[in-house]
Design goal:
194 residues; alpha/beta; Rossmann fold; five-stranded parallel beta sheet; 5 strands
Length: 194
Amino acid sequence: MKTVGITGGIGSGKTTLCKLIQIMGYPVFFADDESKLLIDNDLILKKKLIDAFGSEIYADNGKLNRSVFAAIIFENKNSLQLANSIIHPAVIEVFDRWRKMQTTEMVFVESAILFESVLQHTADKTIAVSAPEEIRIRRVIKRERVKREVVEARIRNQMIDEIRNAQADYIVLNDDKNLVIPQMEKIFYLLGIE
């Protein structure tokens, strides 16, 4: 079984691409979504995060206060690295179990920070979804109803597209001009998927 990693900066359109892959019948592990579930529900992980960042990162209902946590980790690269060092091993463990249950010839794993995490070592090939920064900012503002400064801070703490694209085996340009499906058809052909 081959594993293909899909990555891209916030607002690049990687989730849309993954939904297309699912429609084609291939399973996709959404690492970013899984990390959110673990952060809210895994008691061991929650304790590690509270020990590292304080109890104020969790609301009274036991769920992560995402705005408080984001303000901590997206304004300080050391805090972001610490958070990732706590969260990534738990996500990898869940991914490994998930992958063993799949029966297709190829599986996909989506992660905004694929190349910044050990998850990259699970991928045989990688696809970077890329879009101009201004388009990404507009998409996130519309989707999350946040201020521009918030999106810009998140982008500053992510790998820049040029570096991500240089590390990827394939690139999908999702700039609202180039059609995504023909690009994916070409990549699927190169991956040996018909």
